[in-house]
Design brief:
Elements lengths: L1 E3 L4 E2 H9 L5 H7 L10 H14 L1
Antiparallel strand pairs: 1-2
Helix pairs in contact: 1-3
């Protein structure tokens, strides 16, 4: 699933960033070499990161 259309970031990339220690959407985006642009994806990215952190 595409999480961020502006940056073409996929769910798997956000999950990997969370597993590598990113705690926020902004940290995950920076780790992927980009930043949130329109911001509509931040809530979804945050939910994915929270899910990964809870599973760890």
């Amino acid at each position: 699933m595409v999480v961020c259309v502006c940056n073409a970031i996929r769910e798997s990339q956000v999950r990997d960033a969370a597993r590598n220690g990113c705690r926020t959407a902004c940290q995950a985006y920076r780790a992927l070499g980009c930043q949130a642009k329109c911001g509509q994806c931040v809530m979804v990215a945050r939910a994915i990161i929270d899910t990964e952190r809870a599973a760890a």
